[in-house]
Amino acid sequence: MTLALSGRIARRELRGGLRGFRIFLACLALGVAAIAGVGSVRSGIEAGLAAEGAAILGGDAEMEFTYRFADPEERAWMEDTALAVSEIADFRSMAVRGDTRALTQVKAVDDAYPLVGNVVLAPDMPLAEALAGRDDLPGAVMAPILIAQMELAMGDTFRLGTQDFVLMAALENEPDSAGDSFALGPRTLVLREALETSGLLASGTLFSSKYRLALPEGTALAPLETEAKERFENSGLRWRDARNGAPGIASFVERLGAFLILVGLSGLAVGGVGVSAAVRAYLAGKTGVIATLRSLGADRRTVFQVYFIQIGVLSVIGIALGLLLGGLIPVLLGPVIAAQLPVPAQFSIYPEPLIEAAIYGALTALIFTLWPLARTGEVRAATLFRDAMAGAKLLPPLPFVAITLALAAALVGVAVAFSGTVTLTLWTAGGVIISLAILAIAALILRWLARRAAPFSRGRPALRWALSAIGSVRDEATPVVLSLGLGLAVLAAVGQIDGNLRNAIQQDLPDKAPSFFFVDIQRGQIDGFLNRLDTDTQVSRHEHAPMLRGVITQINGRPAAETAGDHWVLSGDRGVTYAGALPETTTITAGEWWGTDYAGTPQISFADEEAEEMGLKLGDEMTVNILGRDITGTVTSFRAVDFSTAGMGFVLAMNEAALKGAPHSFIATVYADEAAEPAILRDQTTTYPNITAIRVRDAIDRVTALMEGIANATRWGAAATLLTGFLVLIGAAAAGAPARAYEAAVLKTLGATRGRILLSFALRSALLGGGAALVALGAGVLGGWAVMTFVMESDFVVIWSSALAIVAGGVLATLLAGIGFAWRALAIKPVATLRAKE
Q: Where is the ABC3 transporter permease C-terminal domain positioned along the sequence (predicted)?
C-alpha cells in the first residue's frame, strides 16, 4: 500500500472528530503555550531595552571610571567626539536629620543632566529649580520611600557628609534608573558642585564617575567603542552604549527566561506522558479498524503510517493552538505586564520564541507517540480483536528505540542551543529523565505492593477492591504516577530550593553576618573609629582593612578573559587590599606569605577557590589596574576566603609596599548586639560624617524582596507543569471511565452499595495520589539538595511545610479527578453496562 492510500484512510478516520484527543491537544497546547509565552515576554523586554537603550542609559554612550573623575585628556576626547557630555558621580552615603540616619544612593549630576528623557518631580518643577535650592542651601530631591523613612517634609533640611541640603521635591521618575546597578538604598539627586566641601568625593573614597555622551546622529557605536578602549587602554575605562543600555538587566532577563523555559520543558514532558496515554487509549479503541485493515492485507508499515499521519495532524493542531495562545496572551496582556516591569517592553508577535516553542512541541510529540505507535505494529490481527495493546511486547523494535533516543538527544541539544546554558540545561534534562525513571519504577513497585497487600485486607472490601484495581493488568498506576509525580517533583524541588535560600538569607546569614559595613573611613579617622568600638562592651568583634578597587586586565601577559574566560572575578572591578604581617584571620592554603618588611616587586595572594576555577597557579603574573595605574605582581600564595558569611573577604591581596602609597580608604565590619546598633551608628556617623554605614539586616531585606519576584516567576512556571499533570490525570480518569462503569455494575449486581463502591474509588485515587506525591517529594527533595549543595554551595534542610503541602496536593488532585468520573460510573444502570459487554 502507498503513502497516499494511508493518508486517505487517515483522513477518513479523522472525520469522526476529536473524541479521545481533547486531553492530547490540551497537554500539547499548554506546554507549547507556556514556552511560547515565556519566550514572547522575554523578547518583548529585550526589544524594549534595545529600542529605549539611549533613554535607559541616559545617553548614546557612557564612559565609566572607578573612584576617580576623567582626566583632562579623557574629557577632551569626549568633548571632541560628542555633541554634549553629562558628568555624574554615583555613590552610597548616609542621609542625616537629627538622630535619624538612612542609607541612600546619591547621584550627583551637572546642569546637562539628563541628556535623554525627563525627570518627574512632585511637586512639579524643573530639575534645575529643585537642585538650585533656597536660603543659600543647595537643593535635593529624594525617592518617596526615603522621604517617608526619614519623616521629611518639603523644605526640611538634611545632611550628606558635612553639607546641608534642603529637600525640594520627591523623585517620581528617574529616566535612567533602569540602567543603574542594584542599589542598597533609595535614590537622592543633588548637584555635583554642591558636594565639593562635603568630604564625600575626596581622593580614595568609593564612588564611580559616569560620562554620558550625546553623539551625532548615525554615529557607528562599535568603532567608537574600539577607539575609546584602545586610546585609554590602561585607564580602567568601562564602556556602555545604546546597543545594550542595561546589560545587567538584559543578562538577568535572558537567564531567567532560559530557566523558565526549561521549567516549561518539564511541563511539556508531563504533557508528553498524557500524549502517550491518549495515543494508547485511542489505539485500544481502534481494535476493530486495525484488525480489519490487517485482514484486508495491510502490513505493519501501512498501519503505522495511517495512525502516524493522524497523530501528526493532531499534533500540528495542538502545537498551533499553543503558539496562538503563547503568542497572543502576552500581546493582549501587554499593558498589564508592562505596568509591573521596571524596564520598558514592547509586546508583539515575535517569530523566534514561537519557532523555538514549535520545535520543542514537535520533538516532544514525536518522542511520546512513536513508542505506542511502534508497539501497535507488532501486534497480530487476531490479538487486536481482543485488546490493541495486550499482545504487544513491552518494548518496540530496536530501530524505534534508537529513533526515540535520538529524538530525545536532539531535544536536549536544541534546549542547549536555545538557552545558552549548557550546565543548567543538562541538569534539567537529567533531572527530568531520572525523575521519569524513578516514577516509572515506583509505579511498578506500587502495583506489586497493591497485589501483595490485597489478600491482607479481608473484612475491608472497599480497600481490597481499591488495591486489586491498582495492581491489575490494566495498569492505572503508571500514567497517574508519571503525570502527577513529575509535576509535583518540579514543584517540590522549587519549594525546597526557595525555602532553603530564604533560610540562608533570613535566618542563617544574619547569625553569621556582621551588624554593619562601614566604608570610606579615611586614614586619619581609622584610629578614632576603632577606639569607639574597642570601648563598647556590646561589640563582640570588629575587623578592618585598607580598601581599593581594581580591574584584573592581564594574566601572564595575555588579556585576562583569554586565560580565565568569563569568570565573575573578571566581570568588573573587585575589592583589593594590602597587608604586611599575615592577618590572624587569614589561612594560607598554598605558597608563602610575604614578610612584614617585604618591599620588593609586587606579590599577590589570591582566593584559593576562585584561583582553581580560573586555572591560576603559583608563579603566575597578574596585572591589576588601580586608579588608572597598572600594577603587575606575582601570585605567591592562595588563601581560604569564605564569602558566605557576608563578612570581610578580598579576592586579591598585595604586599603593603605595592599599594600603600595609592589614595585609598578603609573598610570595617562590626559585630555587635542588636540593641547597641543605633548608638554605634549615631556616634560613628556624627563624628565622621563622610563615613557610610550599611546595615546588613537592611541589605538582606532588599535582597529578599528581589528574590521574592524571582521565586514567584519560578512558582508560576512550576504551576503550569502541575496544571498539565492534572490534565493528564483527567485524561487517565476519562480513559478508565468505561472500566470503572463495568466494575460498578458487577459490584452492584453482587450487592455492593453505592457508598461502598464510591469509597473504593476514592481509596484507589487517594492511594495512587499519595504514592505519586511521596515519590515526587523524594525526587524534589533530592533535586533541591543537589542544587543547594553543588550549585549554590550551601547547607540544605528539608522544608517540611512545603513537603506536606505537596503530599496533600497529590492526594487531593487524584481524588478530584477520580471521584469526578466515578459519579458517572455509579449513575449507569448495571443492566445496560453488562449487556454492552456481551
A: 262-375, 719-830
pLDDT computed for residue 394 by the predictor: 57
**Which three cell numbers, joined as nine digits, stand for 721?**
507543569
Task: Report the alpha-carbon distance of residue 716 to residue 173 in Å, rounded.
Answer: 30
In contact, 130 and 121? CB cutoff 8 Å? yes
Instruction: Return phi, psi of residue 115, to 5°.
Output: -70, -35
Q: Which residues of 776-790 are buried (b: 16+ CB within 10 A; e: fewer)?
A: bbbbbbbbbbbbbee
Is residue 655 within 8 A of residue 602, CB to CB? The reply is yes
> How far is 595 from 586, CA to CA, in rounded Å?
14
**Across the chain, how many H-helices and E-strands are there?**
28, 21
- The Cα 226–Cα 215 span in angstroms is 15
Q: Which amino acid, residue 433?
A: I
Residues in a beta bridge with 590: 638
User: What confidence tier does 728 reach under pLDDT thresholds 50, 70, 90?
Assistant: low
Cα dihedral 95, 100, 101, 102 in deg (nearest 10) = -80
Q: Which three cell numbers stand for residue 657?
A: 609596599
Q: Provide, for the chain, the percentages of residues in helix, strand and coil under a 3-state DSSP scheme, each rounded to the nearest 5.
A: 60, 15, 25
Are the C-beta atoms of 826 and 757 separated by less than 8 Å? Answer: yes
Q: Could you tell me where the DSSP H helices lie in 459-525?
A: 461-470, 477-502, 509-512
How large is the greatest C-alpha to C-alpha distance in the chain, in angstroms?
103
Burial class (CB in 10 A: 0-12, 13-18, 19+), 209: buried
Q: What span, in angstroms and rounded, lies between the C-alpha atoms of 469 and 768?
A: 11
Mean pLDDT computed over every residue of the chain? 81
d(C-alpha 472, C-alpha 474), whole Å? 5
What sections of 286-299 are H helices per DSSP?
287-295
Beta carbons of 160 and 105 less than 8 angstroms apart: no
Among residues 507, 601, 614, 494, which one has the least CA distance to residue 552?
614
CA 104 to chain centroid: 28
What is the pLDDT confidence band of residue 639, given thresholds at 50, 70 and 90? very high
pLDDT tens, 4-44? 777 777 777 777 666 667 777 887 888 888 888 888 888 88
Once rounded to an integer, what is the mean pLDDT over residues 414-419?
83
3-state secondary structure of 261: helix
How far is CA 269 from each of CA 28, 63, 720, rounded to the nearest angstrom?
A: 9, 47, 12
Peptide bond before residue 138 is cis, with ω within 30 degrees of 0 = no
Tell me: pLDDT of 391 over 50: no
What's at 409, amino acid-wise? A
Q: Per-residue pLDDT tens for 510-547?
A: 566 788 888 888 888 999 999 999 988 898 888 899 98
Of 508, 570, 384, whose CA–CA distance to 794 is shortest?
Answer: 508
Strand pairing of 187-191 and 516-521? unpaired
Residue 778 grid coordinates = 523524594
Give CA–CA dist 760/780, Å, rounded. Answer: 30
For the chain, the domains span 1-60+219-240+249-397, 61-218, 421-513+699-838, 539-672
Contacts (Cβ under 8 Å, ≥6 apart) of 439: 481, 482, 485, 486, 489, 772, 775, 776, 779
Bridge partners of 125, per DSSP, are none
* Rounded Cα–Cα distance for residues 388 and 838 (Å): 18
With contact defined as beta carbons under 8 Å apart, do 269 and 439 qualify?
A: no
* Neighbour count for residue 37 (Cβ, 10 Å): 24
Q: How far is CA 560 from CA 227, 501, 625, 820, in A?
A: 20, 32, 12, 64
For the stretch 181-200, pLDDT in tens is 666 788 999 999 999 888 88
d(C-alpha 303, C-alpha 464), whole Å: 40
Tally the residues of the chain.
838
CA distance 307 to 287: 12
Distance CA 170, CA 154 (A): 8
